[in-house]
Amino acid sequence: MANQTKKFLYINRRAPYGTVYALEGLETVLIGAAFEQDVSMAFMDDGVFQLKDHQDSGETGMKNFSPTYRALGDYEVTKLYVERESLEARGLRPEDLMALTYEDEDDDYKEKPSIHIVSSAELADILEIQDVIFNF
Known about the structure:
Strand content: 15-25%
Number of domains: 1
Order of helices and strands: EHEEHEEEHE
Largest sheet: 5 strands, parallel
Strand order of the largest sheet: 6-3-2-1-7
Number of strands: 7
Number of helices: 3
């Protein structure tokens, strides 16, 4: 029997600051990716704020960990799905998000975007093909 790589999807539904869920979710993703899991992330509800560019966590008393998202490409986490309806409901546009990229070694190391804006229907299809789903 061939050893097939399982697909792991980490769903992020909470704002980046105020609780530890967002930071712990990101740390869990990095650990999973370090063990060469097929990791992807989905951002919906207030989780879309995790990818907002120019975050200021000063008033929360928590460290701004958003620069860590830039390391995801180095861990081959290149599929970040952002639910379009969640963005729109919070007054955000795709250009309000960080410009996260990765180097595609199969395409002469060309830089490609990691963030993919998807509809809730497309996200449902993505969820359907996962082997393991974690919610944060």
